[in-house]
Amino acid sequence: MRVDWSEASPSEEGEERDEEEPRAGSEVVVLESIDAATGTTTWRLADVRANHATKGKRGLSKAQRDRRFVLGVGRVTQARLHVDFGT
């Protein structure tokens, strides 16, 4: 999915932030988990051409594969299906 998320709300600004948590943006990601108790979602980068660093056939680096985004459910502004017909 291509997911767009917004800046943290003012109430979240004062809280300690995870350094892996992005401020705002849009990425092609895969949903890993939803924590209903805390209202957070965990995402990882999808292995699709849109996320590859170069135009070649090289996939994601180890750091990119291990990267996780933890976002509050309220921060997700839009989620669109991403179809990649890789050959």
In short:
By secondary structure, this protein is mostly beta strands. The chain has 2 helices and 5 strands; from the N terminus they run E-H-E-E-H-E-E.
Explain what this protein looks like in three dimensions.
The protein has 2 helices and 5 strands. By secondary structure, the chain is mainly beta. The chain has one domain. The two termini are 19 Å apart.
The gyration radius over C-alpha positions equals: 14 Å
Number of strands: 5
N-to-C order of helices and strands: EHEEHEE
Distance between the termini: 19 Å
Mean pLDDT: 78
Strand-pairing-aware structural class: mainly beta
**Which regions have little confidence, pLDDT < 50, spanning 5+ residues?**
12-17
Quote the beta fraction. Answer: 35-45%
Task: Work out the helix count.
Answer: 2
Count of spatially separate domains: 1
The biggest sheet amounts to: 5 strands, antiparallel
Strand neighbour order, sheet with most strands: 4-3-2-1-5
Please give the share of residues in helix.
10-25%
3D shape: elongated
SSE inventory with pairings:
Blueprint: E1 2-5, H1 10-13, E2 25-35, E3 40-45, H2 62-66, E4 68-72, E5 76-80
Antiparallel strand pairs: 1-2, 1-5, 2-3, 3-4
What are the salient characteristics of this protein?
mainly beta; five-stranded antiparallel β-sheet; about 10% helix; elongated; 2 helices; about 90 residues; 5 strands
